[in-house]
Design a protein that fits this description.
By secondary structure, the protein is of the alpha+beta class. It is built from two helices and two strands, in the order ββαα. It has a two-stranded antiparallel sheet. The longest helix is centred in the middle third of the chain and has 18 residues. The N and C termini lie far apart (33 Å).
Length: 79
């Protein structure tokens, strides 16, 4: 499990008659790896909010989960 289920705003969706997943009403992914793509989109959204100083829910992410998604570099501070 990549995200804590109770906090995860991952939604099931349908596009062009195909079932898929999306993050908080975003793009509906319908490919074989749809769920992973939607999770990656969600992580990127929350990390981007954090980087802009906006309120972001990073509690749904662990460093291990970010590694799996390839997004660990996104949390490092720019120096």
């Amino acid at each position: 499990m990549l995200f804590k289920e109770k906090l995860m705003p991952l939604e099931k969706c349908t596009e062009n008659g195909k079932n898929g997943y999306r993050w908080k009403g975003g793009k509906c992914y319908t490919s074989k790896d749809a769920k992973q793509k939607a999770l990656k989109q969600g992580a990127a959204i929350e990390i981007n909010k954090h980087a802009k100083g906006e309120e972001a829910d990073l509690s749904i992410l662990s460093f291990e989960e970010l590694l799996k998604l390839g997004l660990e570099e996104s949390l490092k501070d720019d120096k």
